[in-house]
TrEMBL record:
Gene3D superfamilies: FomD-like (2.40.380.10). It comes from the Bacteria. Residues 18-156 form the DUF402 domain. This is DUF402 domain-containing protein. It comes from Companilactobacillus keshanensis. NCBIfam families: PRK13662.1. The lineage of its organism: Bacteria, Bacillati, Bacillota, Bacilli, Lactobacillales. Pfam families: DUF402. SUPFAM superfamilies: FomD-like. Keywords: Hydrolase, Magnesium, Metal-binding.
Length: 177
């Protein structure tokens, strides 16, 4: 697979444990790729749900994927401040089609005032039973929730305002806003 370059557009595809396509984001501009991570930004991009519903994102969103962590982070840039939506998911895979990952239901939402909420615990429990998540998955995901909370509390990586400012500035330069 050719690694996307800065300024290239890629699709993002989220799958569920049983292999079905869950959600697709049509275009995300790549801002940085390294051996272990991809940083991108999308704005007004078409999102298609597994049931065929389609909608368009409203605000710019920085996306962060890492090869070694079982989460990805979406920083939504809003008038009221930055909100974060963190998906507990497999590390990303990249092929000629898209950035891909398996979404494991659990999400951590961080509000502009810093409040954190663990979401979709019931959905995780239901899918865990329905699709027989192995115990190792449960252990890995709970460990990664702890890592994520630590990053949030310490303002690490995507959770720092300097990171948001830097990558939004780069997106604006590349997209000639």
């Amino acid at each position: 697979m050719q690694i996307p370059k800065e300024g290239d557009y890629v699709a993002i595809q989220s799958y569920k444990h049983d292999g079905h396509l869950h959600r697709t984001w049509r275009e995300t501009m790549v801002l940085k790729t390294s051996e272990n991570e991809i940083i991108g930004c999308n704005e007004n991009t078409l999102v298609t749900e597994s049931d065929g519903r389609r909608w368009v994102t409203r605000e710019p969103a920085l996306v962060y994927f890492h090869k070694h962590y079982w989460f990805n982070i979406v920083a939504m840039i809003r008038e009221s401040g930055v909100s974060y939506y963190c998906n507990l998911a497999t590390p990303f895979a990249l092929d000629k089609e898209a950035i891909k990952y398996i979404d494991y239901d659990l999400d951590v939402k961080v509000f502009p005032d810093g409040e954190k909420r663990l979401l979709d615990v019931d959905e995780y429990a239901a899918h865990s039973q329905m699709w027989n998540y192995p115990p190792e998955i449960d252990t890995i995901l709970h460990h990664n929730v702890d890592v994520l909370i630590d990053w949030i509390d310490k303002g690490k990586g995507p959770f720092s305002q300097a990171y948001v400012d830097l990558w939004m500035q780069r997106y604006n330069e590349l997209s000639h806003h």
